[in-house]
Description:
- The chain has 285 residues and is mainly α.
- Helix content is 69%, strand content 1%.
- It has a two-stranded antiparallel sheet.
- The protein starts with 7 loop residues before the first helix and ends in a 7-residue tail after the last helix.
- 21% of the residues are buried.
Amino acid sequence: MTSKPADPIKEAEKRALSNKDLFKTFARWYSAVEVSNSYERLQALSFCFALSGSLRKLYKGDDEGYREALKRHIQFYNSEGTFGSMIHGVTLSMEEEKAKGNEITEEVVTGFKTGLMGPIAGIGDTLIWGTLKPIILALACSLALNGVFVGGLIPFLFPLAIVLIGFGMLKSGYLLGKESVMKLMQTGLINNIITSASILGLFMMGALSSTYIKISTPIQFSVMDSDPIVLQDILDQILAGILPLCAVFSIYFYFKYKGQNYNKLIIMLIVISLVTGFFGILSSS
């Protein structure tokens, strides 16, 4: 006879930490995530600071247990700040079990947290910083360039999304616990989400590149007793927008083979623009 699965709502009611406690944890993390970075511990101080209030509640009446928990979480930690809030939730879930006297060793808590840092960072960097932020800022730039006032307000959607996603991930990690999080990581769903987000980001960047990068050439060749041959018309017949496309791919290959030296690239683009514009080779029309 199979047992009934646990009711998630009832399970949540049994938890020691309330939504208020979890939000305080996230608020602490959000306000301090990059404040205490060091080469030795990176985000460890911020991580410990974020959990300290909830740990005090979990280890109420057990000062020694509370001190040991703080020592555990002052160790090296580094992951993406928003999606990575899931690690805070899972850690609090494990600390709650340990505070209740269940057989969870210090090594298990630390090892599980350390094991999640890398995979979660890859997911968060792709979804939050590689997809969500460019899309929101691109929308803002598009509206602002067209003189729409709302374009100046759109960027504020990003910190709002950070808070909603970050708190949601922390709460999910706390309620799901380590077993469910591992199952989620192993199902392949996360990889599908990353792939979909990457494709969406590429579509957005391609659309923006073709819309806002304006490069043409005014070069034309005069032919006796005939209309001049306009080089731009020939290029358009080969492929419309071929010069902006070449510019985008040139920048891409520069990043790929020469590294992400943004200042050097900006200076190069300014110099190339000035030289080609002065000699009438390229224009922005």
